């Protein structure tokens, strides 16, 4: 094992949003900082490079945000999605701090743009990054380089060496070469563990092997596992992950945003056996997309099939892969590997249950089926106009909940008390606040707020 | 340098593949006019791609911001994909096409033409030397120059007009209103899109760092060129309307417009050429790199030789410098339809066409 020649004030594990916020903050406070990014340069930035916005409290219009979004409303939105599984004190702290994140991000090179087309509902609550998360990550890496922060790519941290209430060094592999890295303080910001399918399978069951991972293949939770094995306190449901229904043809890893499908409200969704299993029109899509990952995951082979007809094909955002297309329902079934008779039966039953009435694609129109075991309660129009289209759906994992428990100063704790020179930020500790569910844009908020706190605390510790 | 690799698949097919991915993503919406225009359709006809490609000015912001660039299997490279479609559209719509293919791709062809033009003017100066005349008209009579340059200017313009008509048809441009022209000229005059959507410019010469240099050098070039053009035009007016013939003194419109214009063009050309050597050729249409570079150098030489000619007033160098200058101007004029020079026409046409299209839907949930 070789030794990194220098001893740093702070070594930051990870190279995504939380890591960069911590590193920049500490370097600006005068600390000598090293970033250890497990991925190669081309894939730097973890899941942060796939993001598009962060959720930001604000009292009045503030570019690019419209209107106002104040603490109470923000906190209520969080309560709603987490069903109360949050730490109110930490959550309110993050919400309040989010307001000053926006100017901080701008002064460190991040640029914003008005809410993207198709996401108008978020223009008040979420600030969109110009160019998306990779542009944000690039801006932070430029800032980091200007501040003289050392950056190592392909630098996988394998073990965080703990000696009582202190961390002494990291065992890493840098470009395949085992290397010891010494520093006086450490920030862990290595994200979740969603890329470790074995871990997911242990937690969720073998079905998890059929899940697609929407983000980076480099977030394998190695550091999280290592810390848990060493008795660090944990938080968040170990058996759960946040999954949405995405295009079944997406790559196994790193498909990112484009693989999402917004067609469900205008379709019927059947399983492998050609049967419907849930109300596709329960609510508007932004409020329902998050449950469909789970719904599909519970079906045989973890797969679903959305079937639409010509009337609805232009009602939703374009998909990255063109849909399967056929002139008959049977033809579509055959192309998608479904039993034609079964699909025909389901479609006929559904069509017969549809009622006449006005159809409004952009609002809850109450156009519902009558007499079905699994009703469709809005946008229920018969699937009867050729050509017919189909999309295969699979669960795509976005986020894991199990993480390190931290206090308001981002410090990591063992059963005996705080580990004096160790802090955590980002998804690796997000379970403290986001116990279940998901609030769009909150992952980046948690990472920015706690990254900055961790950087400050670490710099103060070594000063 | 000229990279002579033909693209492996039709540029339209590759651009279509990439645009469909962008259309499902849209993260780059704020960078430039391309992405909002893209959201108008779900499927892209060849004409749609021609339109989008001519709205793109190769700032590369959307390349460095993209999470799907190689080694990702989606292999996005929008600046290159659109540059290929753009270069292809200028070639396809030019007449004759073969000339465009030759001069767009091969800087050496442009140099060869310059040598021919030079030889022609040395011959003309020797053979057609007038009996009388002042300044450079002592070397080549005004009427002879007019006889050469008016057709050499108007014929290429006529060819470009024909190409633009086809272009308009291909991109489905509608009826042009004054307000469309106004919007387009306004955008072009400020090079609005070159600001990158955040006022910090392009990602051109230093990977993902933003810089306004490209816009500044392009401004110098464009306004310098317009000043030189105005200088020539004012000379023509003075010649015919006021019978005031060249040479003109320093305090006269042709010189007051031409000297700063020439200096701006030289600085602009030097800057643009330098930036081009710094920028990654893989993010543009690599096969036309040589032609583009030669075109920048040609513009620079037009200005430089013009200035030199003025500086040499009264010396024995006027003759040879005049031949060189006129040769560069002739090549510039003749190659207008077949070189990067057409980009100005197409870009303006694209902005006008865009102003006339229905506003992008802006989606809606
Ligand atoms: C497709 C997609 C879209 C999303 N969109 C949004 C959005 O718009 N807004 C939002 O708020 N959230 C979004 N999220 C969630 C968001 O990505 C995460 O909450 C956030 O990026 C977490 O930031 P982080 O810095 O903690 O982790 P990451 O950005 O994932 O960074 C983790 C880093 O650690 C490195 N690493 C991992 N293991 C090791 C190791 N052993 N040694 C060294 N380095 C290691 C990784 O390479 C990576 O650089 C999205 C997620 C996905 C998948
Ligand atoms: S270039 Fe990449 S990031 Fe930008 S819109 Fe296209 S796919 Fe999205
Ligand atoms: S290169 Fe620049 S101008 Fe061209 S599409 Fe990308 S962002 Fe727009």
From TrEMBL, chain A:
SUPFAM superfamilies: FAD/NAD(P)-binding domain, Succinate dehydrogenase/fumarate reductase flavoprotein, catalytic domain. Residues 9-435 form the FAD-dependent oxidoreductase 2 FAD-binding domain. Pfam families: FAD_binding_2. Its cofactor is FAD. Keywords: FAD, Flavoprotein, Oxidoreductase. The keyword Ubl conjugation does not apply. Gene3D superfamilies: FAD/NAD(P)-binding domain, Succinate dehydrogenase/fumarate reductase flavoprotein, catalytic domain. The keyword Oxidoreductase applies. NCBIfam families: CobZ_N-term (TIGR02485), PRK08274.1 (NF006130). PANTHER family: FAD-DEPENDENT OXIDOREDUCTASE 2 FAD BINDING DOMAIN-CONTAINING PROTEIN, FUMARATE REDUCTASE. This is FAD-dependent tricarballylate dehydrogenase TcuA. It comes from Paragemmobacter ruber. The gene is tcuA.
């Amino acid at each position: 094992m070789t030794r990194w020649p220098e001893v740093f004030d702070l070594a930051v594990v990870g190279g995504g949003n939380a890591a960069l916020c911590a590193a920049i903050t500490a370097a600006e406070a005068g600390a000598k900082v090293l970033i250890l990014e497990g991925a190669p340069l081309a894939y730097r930035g973890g899941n942060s490079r796939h993001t598009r916005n962060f959720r930001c409290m604000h009292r009045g219009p503030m570019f690019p945000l419209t209107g106002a979004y104040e603490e109470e409303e923000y906190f209520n939105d969080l309560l709603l999605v987490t069903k109360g599984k949050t730490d109110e004190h930490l959550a309110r702290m993050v919400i309040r701090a989010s307001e000053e994140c926006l100017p901080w991000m701008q002064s460190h090179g991040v640029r914003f743009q008005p809410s993207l087309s198709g996401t108008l509902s978020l223009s008040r609550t979420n600030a969109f990054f110009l160019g998306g998360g990779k542009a944000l990550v690039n801006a932070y890496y430029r800032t980091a380089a200007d501040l003289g922060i050392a950056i190592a790519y392909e630098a996988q941290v394998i073990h965080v060496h703990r000696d009582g209430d202190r961390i002494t060094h990291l065992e890493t592999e840098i470009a395949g070469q085992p290397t010891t890295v010494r520093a006086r303080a450490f920030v862990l910001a290595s994200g979740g563990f969603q890329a470790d399918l074995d871990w997911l399978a242990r937690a969720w069951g073998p079905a998890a092997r059929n899940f697609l991972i929407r983000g980076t293949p480099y977030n394998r939770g190695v550091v999280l596992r290592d810390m848990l094995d060493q008795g660090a306190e944990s938080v968040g449901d170990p058996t759960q992950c946040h999954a949405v229904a995405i295009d079944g043809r997406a790559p196994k890893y790193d498909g990112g945003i484009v693989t999402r499908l917004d067609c469900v409200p205008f379709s019927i969704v059947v399983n492998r056996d050609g049967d419907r299993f849930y109300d596709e029109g329960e609510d508007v899509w932004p409020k329902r997309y998050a449950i469909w990952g789970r719904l599909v995951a519970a079906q045989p082979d973890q797969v679903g099939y959305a079937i639409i007809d010509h009337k609805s094909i232009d009602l939703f955002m374009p998909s990255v892969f063109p849909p399967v297309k056929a002139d008959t329902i049977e033809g579509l079934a055959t192309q998608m590997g479904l039993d034609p008779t079964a699909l025909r039966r389901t479609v006929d039953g559904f069509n017969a249950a549809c009622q006449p009435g006005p159809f409004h694609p952009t609002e809850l129109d109450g156009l519902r089926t009558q007499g079905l075991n699994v009703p469709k309660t809005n946008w229920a129009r018969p699937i009867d106009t050729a050509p017919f289209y189909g999309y295969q759906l699979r669960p795509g994992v976005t986020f894991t909940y199990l993480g390190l428990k931290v206090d308001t100063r981002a410090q990591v704790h063992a059963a005996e008390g705080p580990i004096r020179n160790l802090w955590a930020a980002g998804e690796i500790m997000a379970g403290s606040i986001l116990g279940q569910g998901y609030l769009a844009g909150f992952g980046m908020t948690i990472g920015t707020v706690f990254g900055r706190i961790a950087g400050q605390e670490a710099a103060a510790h070594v000063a | 340098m000229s990279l002579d690799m033909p693209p492996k698949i039709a540029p339209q097919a590759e651009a279509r593949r990439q645009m469909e991915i962008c259309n499902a993503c849209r993260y780059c919406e704020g960078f430039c006019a391309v992405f909002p225009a893209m959201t108008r359709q779900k499927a892209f006809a060849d004409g749609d791609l021609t339109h989008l490609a001519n709205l793109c000015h190769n700032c590369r912001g959307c390349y460095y911001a993209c999470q799907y660039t190689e080694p990702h299997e989606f292999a996005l490279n929008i600046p290159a994909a659109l540059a290929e479609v753009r270069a292809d559209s200028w070639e396809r719509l030019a007449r004759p096409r073969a000339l465009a293919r030759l001069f767009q791709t091969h800087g050496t062809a442009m140099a060869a033409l310059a040598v021919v033009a030079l030889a022609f003017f040395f011959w003309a100066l020797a053979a057609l030397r007038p009996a009388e005349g002042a300044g450079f008209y002592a070397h080549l009579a005004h009427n002879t120059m007019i006889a050469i340059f008016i057709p050499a200017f108007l014929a290429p313009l006529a060819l470009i007009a024909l190409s633009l008509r086809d272009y308009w048809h291909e991109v489905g441009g509608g009826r042009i209103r004054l307000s469309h022209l106004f919007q387009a000229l306004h955008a072009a005059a400020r090079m609005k899109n070159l600001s990158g959507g955040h006022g910090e410019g392009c990602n051109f010469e230093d990977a993902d760092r933003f810089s306004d240099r490209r816009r500044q050098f392009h401004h110098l070039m464009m306004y310098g060129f317009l000043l030189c053009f105005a200088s020539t035009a004012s000379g023509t007016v003075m010649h015919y309307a006021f019978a005031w013939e060249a040479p003109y003194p320093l305090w006269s419109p042709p010189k007051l417009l031409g000297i700063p214009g020439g200096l701006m063009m030289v600085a602009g050309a030097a800057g643009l050429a330098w930036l081009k050597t710094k920028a990654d050729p893989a993010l543009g249409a690599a096969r036309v790199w040589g032609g583009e570079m030669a075109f920048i150098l040609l513009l620079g030489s037009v200005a430089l030789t013009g200035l030199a000619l003025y500086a040499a007033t009264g010396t024995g160098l006027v003759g040879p410098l005049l031949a060189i200058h006129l040769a560069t101007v002739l090549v510039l004029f003749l190659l207008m339809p077949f070189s990067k020079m057409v980009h100005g026409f197409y870009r303006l046409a694209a902005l006008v066409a865009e102003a006339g299209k229905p506003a992008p839907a802006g989606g809606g949930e």
